[in-house]
Write a structure and sequence with these properties.
It is an enzyme of class 5 (isomerase). It comes from Vulgatibacter incomptus. α4 crosses α6 and α7 crosses α8. The protein starts with a strand and ends in a 5-residue tail after the last strand. The protein is of the alpha/beta class. The longest helix is centred in the last third of the chain and has 18 residues. It folds into five domains: 99 residues, PriA, 3(prime) DNA-binding domain (GIY-YIG endonuclease, 3-Layer(aba) Sandwich), CATH 3.40.1440; 67 residues; 177 residues, P-loop containing nucleotide triphosphate hydrolases (Rossmann fold); 239 residues, Rossmann fold (3-Layer(aba) Sandwich), CATH 3.40.50.300; 89 residues, Ribosomal protein S10 (Alpha-Beta Plaits, 2-Layer Sandwich), CATH 3.30.70.600. The chain has 21 helices and 31 strands. Bound molecules: adenosine-5'-diphosphate (ADP) and zinc ion.
């Protein structure tokens, strides 16, 4: 018989292969197929519609004896491949643990560890209600109940027909827990992790969301920092588990928030499969199979976990939904948050998007009634939000009234007010966090008097300083260029080029506060996940007084001892050449401010800035998300940026800069020719990181009212890209998050 197969290789379209007529294959099942001169992993899609011309090759082997993709997952990945303009076979492959996507490691499906004992984890009234019509499953549960709730699988096999299969089904429904021989003592799902009594706001949120279990609805859970969103997630999941369902929880970066995974484990024990980038391939395969065979029913993981094989999915949760790390920036360039919503819809379950600073996309969806807004406006125990004070650096600079000698001195890292606040904090035995989001590339060019950074007249994004032609500023959207002006375009003040980083802050601290115990957290200081966990744990235990770092310190950490948060230079984010620069800056500042005053003592936040009147900074002062969002939405509407349009970025890179640029222009011409009415085309322009690892990078940005026209055009551009010269790579990025 003839099969339609998606091959795990970077090629477009599907292929036809032949297999024995009596081969029993399931949709999505893995195959080994000959492909060109090598072998590849393929995925069975269904019977081929028609015989192709030429010789049809035979599959070599069918793997696993069954498909690894449930029907909902298969639909999800088909949708993703289509939407993100990426080959289906590659998309399927990347949705599996790496070991299962390789042809040279077969057979790689690691058997789940042998099950030794099983135990009931639901009270009789729950499993009786859940198993109404499945008599054999109910019989097995009754047998266990009679035996005091648990039994060895060997005994069950003797007492109950088909015990292993039934046990798997019951585990998938969340009625049984399975314990491997080496698994130690059976975990009770509620071992440890005493659940606190929900506050009134929490109770309302839990009630609203659980009322929609069993159907699709998306909730935007907008809760201020420390309002207890996690507890809301845990309660909803408990409810889902009681009904025999599983849960998918996406979190931005597990390594950065080990506490969070710990809270899920404490509440649900071995029911939780944790999926993050720190796992070995083997561990990943193992967690994957634990979910697939129902041993675990709750997947907590980073973006790729959106493809986790959660059994009987009953709820999908995305924590910190605004976080850019949900976007995959290579290969299948998906946004896990968006796919999570789609997956919830496929499964007819609620989807909860939680954040203290929702993305403007989600906010717009809530305003238009597509998402339902649920709010937690207060911190737990009515603890106050920290007070936020803005420190105007340009004023400080004016009063210092001295010509800067060299660029390094242009920014006083620890200004007088911040120094004083640090001194007080240290004297009272409390802890402080100092935040400076200094990213590697692009040094910041801004006016020392008014704080404005030079912006593109057409695109309203910050211009980037290039050394070419004696110093020029360029727009990374439309390629507008202008010689670097002598003074600030708006006030003629002096332009500063600032390149401060966290290391300098650490040195400065050591000089001023030699007795303070300091820890640093950034990509340079932290090499491994273990090291990161160690630093976070040490700070949590009070082994250091000050934690200095990049955005890594801003994440959801819960350090009750922290009463002071200092932001060294808030303007850094605003200088990024990205239309979301302002939104990102606000989110980060609000997030890092939220680390202060989570314990009994109130918190204080000092934000140093050359431009404290910028909305992204000013609105942090009053914790005024609504005002920030309203203003920013208005600006986006005027400029026609998302969420008032959809975007497709085409990214081109090559060793030969001229050739890459030529390809960019060819794609732009093709796009212009086929553009739909109302579509906007920007570029080609150099990417913000114009050269990386010896390759020149260009980009093209297409904006349209909805995704439909972009996809239609995108598909035609994919064909044009196929004819790009060797060595030039073209990637398509739907709903790009960074430029
Ligand atoms: P968020 O994720 O909204 O920032 P968390 O879920 O981390 O907030 O909760 C903040 C703190 O409050 C945590 O230490 C958590 O254990 C605690 N907490 C949450 N809900 C309750 C509650 N109902 N009663 C007491 N403490 C709670
Ligand atoms: Zn521009």
């Amino acid at each position: 018989m003839l099969l339609e197969v998606a091959v795990g290789a970077p090629v477009r379209g599907t292929f036809t292969y032949e297999a024995d007529d009596d081969a029993r294959l399931e949709p999505g099942q893995r195959l080994v197929v000959p492909f060109g001169r090598r072998r590849a992993i393929g995925f069975y899609l269904g019977p081929a519609q028609a015989a192709p011309e030429g010789k049809v090759r035979r599959i070599e082997q069918a793997l696993d004896g069954e498909t690894l993709f449930s029907p909902d997952l298969l639909s999800l990945i088909r949708f993703a491949a289509d939407y993100y303009l990426y080959p289906l076979g590659e998309a399927l492959r990347s949705a599996l643990p790496p070991d299962l996507g390789r042809v040279d490691r077969q057979p790689a499906t690691e058997r789940a560890p042998a099950i030794e004992t099983v135990s009931l984890i639901q009270p009789a009234e729950v499993w009786k209600a859940a198993l109404g019509r499945s008599r054999s499953q109910a019989a097995l549960a009754a047998h266990l109940e009679a035996r005091g709730g648990s039994a060895r699988l060997e005994e069950l096999k003797v007492a109950v027909k088909d015990a292993p299969a039934l046990v798997r089904k019951l585990a998938a429904k969340g009625i049984l827990a399975l314990h491997a021989a080496d698994g130690g003592a059976p975990d009770s799902p509620f071992s440890g992790g005493q659940a606190p009594r929900p506050s009134d706001d929490q109770a309302r949120a839990i009630e609203t969301i659980t009322a929609s279990l069993g159907r699709f609805e998306t909730f935007l859970l907008h809760g201020v920092t420390g309002s207890g969103k996690t507890e809301v997630y845990l309660r909803i999941i408990s409810e889902v588990r009681e009904r025999g369902g599983g849960a998918l929880v996406l979190v931005p970066e597990i390594a950065l928030t080990p506490q969070l995974a710990g809270r899920f484990r404490a509440r649900f024990g071995s029911q939780v499969a944790v999926l993050h980038s720190g796992l070995s391939d083997r561990e990943r395969t193992r967690e994957h199979s634990r979910l697939r065979n129902g041993e675990a029913t709750i997947a907590v993981g980073v973006r790729s976990a959106v493809f986790a094989p959660v059994p009987s999915l009953g709820v999908v949760i995305v924590d910190e939904e605004h976080e850019p790390s949900f976007k995959q920036e290579e290969k299948l360039r998906y946004n896990a948050r968006d796919l999570a919503v789609y997956r919830a819809r496929l499964n007819q379950t609620p989807c909860v998007l939680g954040s203290a600073t929702p993305s403007l996309e989600s906010l717009a969806n809530a305003r238009e009634g597509r998402y339902r807004l649920v709010e937690l406006p207060e911190r737990i125990d009515s603890r106050p939000l920290p007070t936020v004070e803005l420190v105007d650096l340009s004023a400080a600079r004016r009063t210092r009234n001295e010509a800067p000698t060299e660029p390094r001195d242009e920014l006083e890292l620890l200004g007088p007010r911040l120094s004083l606040a640090l001194e007080e904090t240290l004297a009272s035995g409390k802890q402080a966090i100092l935040f400076l989001n200094r990213r590697g590339h692009a040094s910041l060019v801004l006016c020392g008097a008014c704080g404005e950074s030079a912006r593109c007249p057409d695109c309203d994004v910050a211009l980037t300083h290039h050394l070419s032609r004696g110093g020029e500023l360029r727009c990374h959207y439309c390629d507008f260029r202008t010689p670097k002006p002598a003074g600030c375009p708006s006030c003629k003040g002096e332009l500063l080029v600032i390149g401060a980083g966290t290391e300098r802050v650490e040195r400065e601290l050591a000089k001023r506060f030699p007795d303070a115990r300091t820890l640093r957290l950034d990509r340079d200081a932290v090499g491994s996940t273990a090291e990161l966990t160690r630093i976070l744990a040490a700070f949590a235990k009070g082994e250091a007084d000050v934690l200095v770092g990049t955005q890594m310190v801003a994440k959801g950490h819960d350090f009750p001892g922290v009463t002071l948060v200092g932001v060294i230079l808030a303007d850094i984010g605003l200088g990024m050449p990205d239309f979301r620069a302002s939104e990102r800056t606000f989110q980060l500042l609000a997030q890092v401010a939220g680390r202060a005053g989570r314990g009994r003592d109130p918190g204080r936040v000092l934000i140093q800035s050359f431009h404290p009147s910028a909305s992204a900074i000013a609105c942090v002062e009053g914790h005024d998300f609504p005002r920030f969002a309203a203003g920013e939405l208005e600006r986006r509407r005027e400029l026609g940026y998302p969420p008032f349009s959809r975007a497709l970025a085409v990214r081109i890179e090559g060793e030969d800069s001229a050739e890459a640029e030529r390809t960019g222009r060819r794609l732009a011409e093709a796009a212009k020719r086929w553009a739909f009415p109302g579509m906007k085309l920007l570029g080609p322009a150099p990417a913000p990181i114009a050269r990386l690892r010896g390759r020149s990078r260009f980009q093209l940005l297409l904006l349209a009212q909805g995704p439909g026209p972009l996809q239609a055009l995108g598909r035609r551009l994919v064909d044009v890209a196929q004819t790009a010269p060797n060595g030039v790579k073209v990637a398509f990025d739907m709903d790009p998050l960074s430029m």
